[in-house]
């Protein structure tokens, strides 16, 4: 069976960006990448199409990094033309770009619409003007609302990105950003914990003792609450945590901060641990009791927790003999059922 979406990623790091945001070093995050040309785009599309299965349902070219609509018009056209031609021929089905809220206007959107772009992601990061200013974002909250409204008016799909733990951030500013994003009703969201990357302004502040990243534990709790808020409002969170790269994975790029390659898995595990503990309050048990947890097959690993952490936690905290997780296709995907047994042979 074919998976739903196949992405052809094209990275244009730092192109079009008018500012060096406090947290940003695109070369460290995305790796050393030369300037992308029209020929490069054409070759990448053909390369990926050869790798995709013939029955791939949805194939999309995605321009990541930088601020696409900040690139000179002639350069935007050079990058878009090969993707648009492949879309016209039916070889791909969509094109998406990422940009800044203050680089959106009717002229730019007219161009993107004309060349087949379907989705626009805005790097919002925060809607607290003080936080935006401290992190050298160069735009205001009002720019976010204007850009999002215009993108929706032009009937593009809208994606919004937010960050947790920026310089000046606290629980209130993060919740304010989440509330604003919810009010804009995007088609999807990405959530990134703030990491101190080498050769950034944030690293300088960190070395000077003027910035302290959120702890890993606090970031997990905050992101757990954010994920639940967006899911309850039917807004998909398509990424939670930084995409792992070679520099990030081996730690060469990271100075400090709550980075983990399985960050989302850890957050989702915490959600199910909380659900299970609530249900345990209504389940009769004694020391040595075994628990059976039923859930849909698609969430077994989340219920078990990262590296079986939930199972270990429950056994240690409640003096259980064992925790058995059984999948049940008839159960709704987000629900779990907890039963206790006293006969460990069952």
From TrEMBL:
GO terms for biological process: tRNA wobble base 5-methoxycarbonylmethyl-2-thiouridinylation. InterPro entries: ELP3, Elp3/MiaA/NifB-like_rSAM, Radical_SAM_C, rSAM, rSAM_horseshoe, rSAM_sf. One of its GO terms (molecular function) is catalytic activity. Gene3D superfamilies: tm_1862 like domain. The keyword Nucleotidyltransferase does not apply. Pfam families: Radical_SAM (PF04055), Radical_SAM_C (PF16199). Signal peptide: none annotated. One of its GO terms (cellular component) is cytoplasm. This is Radical SAM domain-containing protein. Keywords: 4Fe-4S, Iron, Iron-sulfur, Metal-binding, S-adenosyl-L-methionine. The keyword S-adenosyl-L-methionine applies.
């Amino acid at each position: 069976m074919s998976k739903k979406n196949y992405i052809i990623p094209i990275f244009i790091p730092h192109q079009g960006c008018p500012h060096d945001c406090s947290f940003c070093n695109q070369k460290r995050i995305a790796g050393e990448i030369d300037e992308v040309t029209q020929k490069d785009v054409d070759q990448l599309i053909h390369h990926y199409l050869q790798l995709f299965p013939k029955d791939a349902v949805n194939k999309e070219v995605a321009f990541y990094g930088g601020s696409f609509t900040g690139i000179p018009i002639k350069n935007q056209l050079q990058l878009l033309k090969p993707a648009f031609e492949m879309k016209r021929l039916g070889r791909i089905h969509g094109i998406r770009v990422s940009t800044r809220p203050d680089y959106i206007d009717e002229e730019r959107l007219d161009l993107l619409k004309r060349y087949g772009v379907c989705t626009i992601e805005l790097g919002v990061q925060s809607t607290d003007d003080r936080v935006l200013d401290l992190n050298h974002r160069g735009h205001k909250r009002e720019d976010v609302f204007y850009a999002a409204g215009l993108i929706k008016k032009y009937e593009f799909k809208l994606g919004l990105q937010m960050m947790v733990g920026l310089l000046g951030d606290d629980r209130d500013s993060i919740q304010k950003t989440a509330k604003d994003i919810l009010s804009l009703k995007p088609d999807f969201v990405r959530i990134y914990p703030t990491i101190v990357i080498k050769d950034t302004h944030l690293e300088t502040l960190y070395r000077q003792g003027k910035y302290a990243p959120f702890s890993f534990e606090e970031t997990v709790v905050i992101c757990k609450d954010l994920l639940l808020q967006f899911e309850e409002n039917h807004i998909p969170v398509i990424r939670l945590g930084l995409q792992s790269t070679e520099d990030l994975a081996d730690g060469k790029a990271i100075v400090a901060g709550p980075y983990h390659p399985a960050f989302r898995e850890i957050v989702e595990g915490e959600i199910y641990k909380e659900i299970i503990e609530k249900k345990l309050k209504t389940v009769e048990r004694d020391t040595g009791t075994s628990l059976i947890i039923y859930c849909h097959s698609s969430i077994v690993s989340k219920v078990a927790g990262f590296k079986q952490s939930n199972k270990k936690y429950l056994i240690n905290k409640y003096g259980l003999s064992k925790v058995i997780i059984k999948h049940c296709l008839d159960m709704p995907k987000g629900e779990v059922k907890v039963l206790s047994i006293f006969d460990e042979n069952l």
